[in-house]
Amino acid sequence: MTVKASTESVTQRVERQLRSDILTLALPPGSRLSEQDIGERYGSSRQPGREALIALSKSRLVEILPQRGAVIAKISIAKLMQAAFVREAIETAVIRSACSSFHFHARTRLEDCLKAQERAVESSDRAEFRRYDDLFHRTLADGAGLMMAWTVVEDLKAHIDRACCLSLGKGDALRKLLAEHKAIVAALDARDSHAAEAAMKSHLSELLQDLPTLEAAHPDIFE
């Protein structure tokens, strides 16, 4: 969930905006950045840009080059595969737990997410769909009382999100993902943990199935 601007420092804002631009491919892999570039792009001095680069280098999203600024890292297939492996382990455990105990307020929020995603599908708004995709998975963890699990996933999926941006541009990808979300919720409502886990695994495997095609179509941004 986005932190309100009024509670953010300039450094936090710059880091958030830079991270978002990297994850959505507004700044594609291989792009070079300097502290001055960042300051001009996000309306800050050089110091917040420097601190944002250091923070994002820890997530392996940028590589800092001594005396030469930084470059946005290519999408690492190895890191993506590892992140996907850990994410599946966590999110299947979350949905299994959710089938045993799930807060009714969170169930209402899930329905709101599905409706918002339906609107995003109809308007072909990929950015809005992704925003509610994150909120959907976050709400599953929240309703199950496992928010720490989402915190781990949120950090991991930085290696997944950029490939997701490419995948969402394919045909009826949004509509298919929405159907998968609905299948997860249907299994949750039925308290069918086996069906819920299967639905979650199927949902999370979509990107991995698309990877060879994405890599072949965009060889310059993968490694």
From TrEMBL:
Keyword Transcription among UniProt keywords: yes
Keywords: DNA-binding, Transcription, Transcription regulation
Single Gene Ontology MF annotation: DNA-binding transcription factor activity
Domain of life the protein comes from: Bacteria
Domain HTH gntR-type: start-end pairs: 8-75
PANTHER family cross-referenced by the UniProt entry: HTH-TYPE TRANSCRIPTIONAL REPRESSOR RSPR (PTHR43537:SF6), TRANSCRIPTIONAL REGULATOR, GNTR FAMILY (PTHR43537)
Annotated protein name in UniProt: DNA-binding GntR family transcriptional regulator
Lineage of producing organism: Bacteria, Pseudomonadati, Pseudomonadota, Alphaproteobacteria, Hyphomicrobiales
